[in-house]
Amino acid sequence: MQRDGTHYLSVLLVPGKKTENFSEAKQRGNLHQVWYESPTIGLNRRMFVYTPYGYETSGKKYPVLYLLHGAGGDEDAWTTMGRARQILDNLIEKGLAVPMICVMPMAIQTKWQLKQPCFPKENSISGIRRNRTFTSTALQKILFLTSKRITG
């Protein structure tokens, strides 16, 4: 049973060519849950941060990929339904991607929106304002946290 935002799904992966990157790689990265204060909505929020195999002992700097979930999802969508850790581990192990840090934050913009439908009403400017507020404050906070805590 896997959860994507408010939806619960049962998933069966059949081994084969199309699902080979969903299985566990030999060299596995780590998935961290990081809590941070969001000044935008006055709540503590969570993000998941993937670090590649060997990150903790390498002392290197890594590129950072930021993944935002879709409407109806949350910060856990990429790690459960998207299997981000397994896919990144496999791509890195096969040399198809460079080792990287991947940040997956909660992208619901406001406290009000946590209790509302996923999309603003048609012809509504409020959704645009919420998006601007979110990107100008929450993402700046996430960028600051990840540059301080993760890359050095």
Rg over alpha carbons: 17 Å
Going by CATH, what is the homologous superfamily?
Answer: Alpha/Beta hydrolase fold, catalytic domain
**Spatial strand arrangement across the major sheet:** 3-4-6-5
Q: List the domain count as a whole number.
A: 1
From N to C, what is the helix and strand string?
Answer: EEEEHEHHEH
Task: Report the end-to-end length measured between terminal Cα atoms.
Answer: 37 Å
> How many distinct beta strands?
6
Sheet with the most strands, sense and barrel status: 4 strands, mixed
Number of helices: 4
Percent range for β-strand residues: 15-25%
CATH class, named Alpha Beta
Report helical residue fraction: 25-40%
From the 3D structure, determine the CATH topology: Rossmann fold
Described by the principal axes of the CA atoms, the overall outline is: flat
Uncertain ranges? none
Report the mean per-residue pLDDT as an integer: 75
Question: Which structural class should the secondary elements be placed in?
Answer: alpha+beta
- Overall CATH architecture: 3-Layer(aba) Sandwich
